[in-house]
Description:
Helices cover 61% and strands 0% of the residues. It is mostly helical.
Amino acid sequence: MTESEWLTATDPTPMLEFLREKTSDRKLRLFACGYFRHIWHLVTERRCQKIVEISEQYSDGLVKRQALSGARHKGWNAAVTSAAWSVGDDSAWFAAKRTAENYQYRQVIAADVWKSDQSELLRCIFGNPYRTITVDPGWLTSDVVALAEGIYQDRAFDRMPILADALQDAGCDNEDVLNHCRSEGPHVRGCWVVDMLTGRT
């Protein structure tokens, strides 16, 4: 996959194939969770939502693997589980791949919209893998760090433009960073800018 293809892709499958063995389990798992968050209004069963919540907590090291396995087992017949968490070892790779490929909510979302939405989420989480951006320590003012951490913890992605302003005030002139913060999104946990500013990988 070329840089141009990555930036314009509307199908998540080749993007995930490109990322294989190039990224962390956390990022892949948050992609799977992020898409469920994106269609939260369709994930109406509480047990399904709980699986996503526990998987996010596991990604942040807040619960042990047993909690994730237990949640998956309790919701074994739930649509979310059968789609993204039914693989025996619960690997993040398969969670992401199965999410991208198919599950029952696809029946109510047009295929082109389904794929395009997921491609946008991948760009939110992974940015442009062809461009390495190093954080300038000068950017990490108390305002910037507090804003980024608050956005992450509260899922307050409406604050992203405020983060862009704070970054500019701190001397950041990187267009990729600023444009992403000011874009309409979608944004999810795992967002490459927020992760970069909070030291998450």
